[in-house]
Amino acid sequence: MEKFIPQRGAGVLCHISSLPNKYGIGSLGREAYDFVDTLAKYGAKYWQILPLQQTGYGDSPYQSVCCTSGNPYFIDLVDLRRQGLLDDEELKSAERKLKNDVDYGDLYENRYKLLRRAYARFNIKNEDFVAFVESGEAEDYALFMSLKSRYGGTFNTFPDAYKYNEHLAMYEFRGSVYREEYCFWLFLQYQFNRQWAALKAYANSKGIAIIGDMPLYVAYDSADVWAHPELFMLDEDLNPTAVAGVPPDYFSKDGQLWGNPLYNWDAVKAGGYDWWIKRIAHASRMYDIVRIDHFRGLDAYYSIPAGADSARQGEWLPGPGAELFAEAERRLGRLNIIAEDLGVIDEGVVMLRDECGFPSMKIMMFAFDGDEDNAYLPQNIDEHSVVYTGTHDNDTALGFMLKQSDAQFAALKKGLRAAISYEGAYTPVVDRADAVRALVLCALNAPSAVAVIPVQDILCLDNWSRMNTPATAEGNWRFRLTSAPSRNAMANFKNMVKRAGR
């Protein structure tokens, strides 16, 4: 397969939800365009985001109600006002005090009510909307959400005809009194898609490429599992027989029990990998580069019996391997994919990644343990990779530094100084804030084609701004900026980008 090496450059990791505005959560509106302008002004070529999907239980973008959906919370309300779908008073009602976290409970209680008011004024005979509906792109999503609006609970609690997605029952449901509900959910996806397409086009026009995340797994209670149960490890009652997770690792001594249903790879293969290839195609339209989360699960995946108390009880089983990507490349052309190859990695994962020609990921935060053979040290990294100070699953760089004991920090400073010397750059490393700047400099100066820095590390924020703590169910995905990144912090970033030749 053809090797993918992105253009050399620097990027910033910041999810849409983290952008500042007065409506409770970041959106595809003015603040997103302003962020693009900031990236372009200060030398970035990439903007990396988390999955754009509508979130489900726990508000995680990695637990979505549909893997090809867009999050209605991200719809720009000001644009709806511009279309005449909201009035000034209604827009005002959505304003919230700008805080550094997202209140998902408030959004759930109030945002959909406002979006329903906008839909009530929308002309469903609009030609663009009709074309979107006829494309069928959001049909499963709209039917699934309509059923959930009617019956609540998970799809497994729907009346049997709907639970099993019987064709005649769904045809009658779509044309019944629930047609308005069905069209409401289509309206949300139409608005999201048109706003996202405009934002992406603007970013591209400014020389900014979008790196977007594609989770490996989908949520159990999702349109994906409901519409295609044959592709997942389910029993005849549509209950999972095995679920996803990872064994004990750096993040958790008991491993991580994610609970997502596993793919029935024999059935996926028998279908010509169609569902997966359509998913890759969709992600490739949404983003310029697709980062596949938990890539190692495509070489071998960790299977945990449904009902297990922890992830300690699982076993590794073979995944689809290179055959999936060979077929996808045959149909779609070259795949601009980054392999998230972190965690428990063995020779099989490395061989799959290299056979597919995908760049790997390198994490500077993991580099300085005193081992000269550490794969994350700058001198051990090659061009065919994307380097980060940390990811959304890690401490912020400052949070990481503050956790180090004095002895650990002394050793870390020594490693950072050696790395900076190796890179031919210099910055004093005295305190923990200095160490954050040095870590950013190490990432930017690494040989990797792309260096991505979380916005928290550019701003030198501690762990109050951490996006996610793996193996925890609460308090995640909430971080928000209360203002645009400061000129001083971005000017320092630009200076380091220039020094790194990015």
Structure description:
The structure is a single chain. This protein is α/β, with parallel strands linked by helices. The protein has helices spanning 30-41, 77-82, 88-93, 104-120, 127-135, 139-151, 160-163, 167-174, 179-205, 223-227, 265-270, 274-286, 322-332, 347-356, 397-403, 406-422, 432-445, 455-458, 487-499; strands at 9-13, 46-48, 209-214, 242-246, 256-261, 289-292, 300-305, 315-318, 337-339, 360-363, 385-388, 450-454. The strands form two sheets. Strands 9-6-3-2-1-12-11-10 form an eight-stranded parallel β-sheet. The protein has a four-stranded antiparallel β-sheet with strand order 5-4-7-8, with no helix packed on it. Helix 6 crosses helix 9 and helix 15 (397-403) packs across helix 17. The longest helix has 27 residues, at 179-205. It is globular and about 70 Å long.
How would you sum up this structure in a few lines?
The chain is of the alpha/beta class and 502 residues long. Helices cover 40% and strands 11% of the residues. The protein has helices at residues 30-41, 77-82, 88-93, 104-120, 127-135, 139-151, 160-163, 167-174, 179-205, 223-227, 265-270, 274-286, 322-332, 347-356, 397-403, 406-422, 432-445, 455-458, 487-499; strands at 9-13, 46-48, 209-214, 242-246, 256-261, 289-292, 300-305, 315-318, 337-339, 360-363, 385-388, 450-454.
Question: What descriptors fit this protein?
Answer:
4-stranded antiparallel β-sheet, 8-stranded parallel β-sheet, 19 helices, single chain, alpha/beta, globular, 502 residues
